[in-house]
Structures are given as structure tokens and as C-alpha cells.
User: Fold this.
Amino acid sequence: MTTKASILGYGKTDITNFVIMMVIAFAFVPMVVQTDYWYSSILIPWLCLSLAAIGQQIVMGFAGQLALGAAGFMAAGAFACFNFILRVPDIPFFVALILSGLVAAAFGVLFGLPSLRVRGIYLMVATLASQFFIVWMIDKFGWFKNYDTSGIITAQDIVIFGKPFTSPLEMYLVIVVVVTVLTILAINMARGSTGRNWMAVRDMDIAAESMGISLLRTKLQAFAISAFYCGVAGALFAFTYLKSLEPVAFDIKLSFKILFMVILGGLGTINGAFIGAAFILLFPVLLNSVGNNVFHGAIDATIISSIEQVVFGVLIIVFMIYEPLGMARLWDNIKRRSRKAN
Amino acid sequence: MTEFLFFIEVVVAGLLSGTMYSLVALGFVLIYKASSTFNFAQGAMVFFAVLAFVGFMELGIPFIPAFFVTVLLMVLVGFCTERLVLNPLMNQSEDTLLMATIGLGFVLEGLAQAAWGVEVRRLDLGIGDFPIEWIIDNLGLFVSALDLTAGLVAAGMITVLALMFKYTKMGLGLRAVADDPGAASSIGIPLKNIMLLVWSAAGVVALVAGMMWGARAGVQFALVDLALKALPVLIIGGFSSIPGAIIGGLIIGASEKVLEVYLGPFFGGAIEGWAPYVLAIFFLLYRPEGLFGEKIIRRV
Assistant:
């Protein structure tokens, strides 16, 4: 081992990578990407969904609890944020964001309780309850929607220190800040004792318990933190991408999508969440443009979306058979091989 | 008195629609019994099967041949699943298999929609969704003919399956495989044939369930979401028990209707969407193995 220049235990390569990422995110992208389409249709939803995927990753990839209700927690976060901004005068946006994450976390603890008794598909069914219950609750009680009858509520503008952030580029920057902070936090948690406890519980909960890890604490903590991430992601998703709040946007399909991001991206890795989110988001875009440009719209849009479903399904099966650790592992393998070649 | 009659009506309607959940759950149990695989794709199989059936009918194939062609198609689906998904994943953890069947479900949904389109189809079985006059006259109850037929069909299928499990050589082999696949194959029980049989049987059950659902609500994608309700049914009844699937379905069906009618109005209605899941959570807390399931023992 050479002498390491390290900050908080991070090595030189980690820091270099981080600096490069930051330069790309804050300088390169805003300079190069000029079209609003890229921000509002690709980058913004990608970052929001990546954040939700990190949430799913924490509970499923790190703590090994098969949960399927990420969209429900996103809905909780989105509507909490809407209500905080609506009802608390002059609340700073970031405070509202954190509070809405905490609201989602409370739901996470509540619906994470069954995880103390059951696992596998049993737990999946229990978490499905959260998905259906939260969306129903928001839909049925007018207070959450401020008694709006149209069903679709326009999200308020994001205002930080009196300055409105409304253009796609400005919103993108807000999201990048949030995502950066939360990603670093997630990486730290995953590397530290919290993450090790999660992984111990994932790999064998009985052994973990006998080593003195409290299952109650560890599992509920994973559910709470996971729901917090999903809640923040949901709030950002509603305020910057959808620009409206409707419970239907957070249906079970979105939960499945986030589950797929994590499975395809690679269970138990943070970068897997980003890779998976990019793939699930970009693949349909690619398929549509192939349909439009190569076949000139000769293929029906519904057929294209069906093909997309088939491809996702096939990929999941193929990855389960050949590379259960997903695309993140493939990426690592490519890196390792190129390093060897050098 | 009329209030009591109304209550009975609600319960009966619930019980009968519960048999439809039972039908979906039944296919699930079949596969779980034989291979300890949670087949998340069962709902997609329901959708796939009935959409194929309606598709064949639209081609002008009469009812009965179309039924058998669809059965053949479901056997083919079972065959491909066994070869392409289950076999390569043999001896993997239950969670891995579960995720693979989620993938399988997406494949089936996508294929069905690509082949037969997304519009809602009507399926006319010749049985109306209206009350039977005879019962109104004699008992004063409104009971839908379709519900009653579904109940009878479900009862018939369950009897046939239970007898098959109990008395045929195939059934015996199946139980042996369920008990211990390794030991079963070492005494010469053809594991692959058993799997194929089970998946085909689950396919046929899915087709029948789909026809019942389709006749009531139209053949459409929402069937997949309805089929998700088979999961709480299974939790209540136990994953490995055929009677459990039936009783679980009846409990879910009756309780969701009763809750909807008597508690729903206080919450603005539509609590059917989540009530079964919450009910399942309470069951999980008190009896995680379900009413009839075997006790879950995890060894270190």
C-alpha cells in the first residue's frame, strides 16, 4: 500500500472521481446541454428516479428486504412537500423537502413493521399494502389535495432564498445538489457500521442477531431511510418533472419500474441505482426513436411499449441466470479488463 | 329483516367473487407445491391466457376448439418456462426465483399485448351478470348467475385437482417432488415432466380464471392488478395448501365486500383496493404460515 492522501477514509481515486463527477454535473453539462428537452425529459427524471432507486437499493440491496412499494412512499413525499409549502408560510424549500422525506420515513417504519416477522414474498405483499393504502388515502381525503376537485394540482414553484428556480436548467441544478448530498450520505452509510449491519442482516439474519445486531433496529432503520430517499425523490419528481401532483402518477407500475432499476442495475451497489435508472428510462426513449426514425412510425406505439415490457422481462431473467449482480458488475468487469490490458 | 337479508346478499356476493380470487391463487399453489417457486407471473398468465382465448375466438374459431388451442398454448408456455427459466435457475434462492418470475410476468404481459392489442375486449360466455330469478323468488336474495357459475366451476376444478393429487400416479409423483426433489428424482420420478405438468395445469387454471374475470370485467390489463389480490389470499390460506387457497379466497372476497359496504362510506369508498392487503398483514402478525400452510421452519 502506498501512502494515502485521504479525506474521511476515501482514497485518491474516489476523490478524483468525485471531483470529475462534480465538474461534469455543475460545469460541463450546463455548458454543453442547451436544449430544454434534455433537462426536462432525461436528466431531471433520471436523477429523481435514481434517488428513488437508491432508496429501494437500501432496503432491498443492502438490507435484503424484498419490498415493493417505493412509489407509495414517493407519493407520500410529494404530497407532504405540497402541503408543507402550501400551509407553512415562508418555509424554505429544502426544509420542506427534508420534512417530506421524514413524513415518508414515518410511513416506511409503519409498513416496515411486518419485516420483523416475515420475509420474501410475504414481505412483498405486506409492502404492497403501503403502495395501495397511501395512494388511496391521498386520493380520498380532500385535505391532502387542498380540496382540489380537478384531480390534478399544479405544483408550486421552487423558491430558494427568494429566487424562483423554474427553468429546466435551474431545476436541474437544485436536483443535482440534493442528489449529490444524499448519494454521498448513502455511500457513507453503506460503508459504515450502518451498512455493515444491513448487509449482515441480509446475508443471514439469525447469525447477525446472535452477533448482537438488533434486527428490530436495523430493519426498521433500513425501511425508514429507504422511505426517506423515496419521499425526497417523490417530491422532486412531482415538483420538477411532473410539475403537478396526482396520486395516479405513483401507481404500482412505478414501483415495479424502480424495482427493475435496482435488479438490473445491480443489487447492493449505489452506482447500480444510477445505471439501472438510466437504462429503464432511456431504453423506451431509444425504442421510440428507432420506431419513429427507422420504421417511420410504421409500428404502433402500443406495440413498442409491449416490446419494451418483453425486453425488460427477458433482461431480468437473463441477468438472474447469468449475472445476478446486474449491470454494475458488468461495468466493473469491463473496467477490470481494460485495466489489465493496460 | 331486510337489513339482514342485505347483509347475507353482500356476503354471498363476496364469497362468490372470492372464488375467482381462489382460482388465481390455485394456480399459484400448484406451482409452489411442486417447486417451491413463488410464481409471481400467475396473474400475467391469467391475462395472457384469456387474451389468447379471445384472440382465437376473433379469428373465427368456435368456443370449444379455441379453448383447447389456448390450453395447448399454455402448455407451450409452461414448457418454455421450464426449459428457459426454471431449469437454469435450479437450486437458486427463493428470492432469485421470485424476481425471475416477475420478469416472466412482464414478458407474458408484453407478448400478449403485442400479439392481441391493448383494447378492452368483451367476453360473452352466455351467462349474464344478472340475478337469478329462481333464487329471488324462493329466498329473496339477489345472486348473480355469473358469480354462481364461477363458484361452481371453481369447486369443480378444485375437486378434480384434489382427486388427481390424491389418487393418480402423477399426483403421487408430484407430492414426492414437492417433498424432496432430490430424493424424488433419484428414485426415477421424471422431474421435468412433473414440472411441465404442473405449469400446464397452472396455465389451464389461469385460463379458466381469466374467462370468469373477463366475462365480468372485460378482458383488459386491469386483470393483472386484480390477480395481485391472489397474494393476500395466499397469505391467509397458506402458500402450499389447495383448501387454503379456497378458504383464503372466500375470506378475502367476503370481507372486502362487507368492509366496503359497511365501512367504506366512512372513508369515501374504494377501500377494496387495499383492505385485503391490510387483512393479510394482520394475518402475518398472528399466523405467518397461513391457515393451512405448513409451519415455516428456517434452519441455520
Remarks:
- Chain B has a mean pLDDT of 83.
- Residues 2-35 of chain B form the longest helix (34 residues).
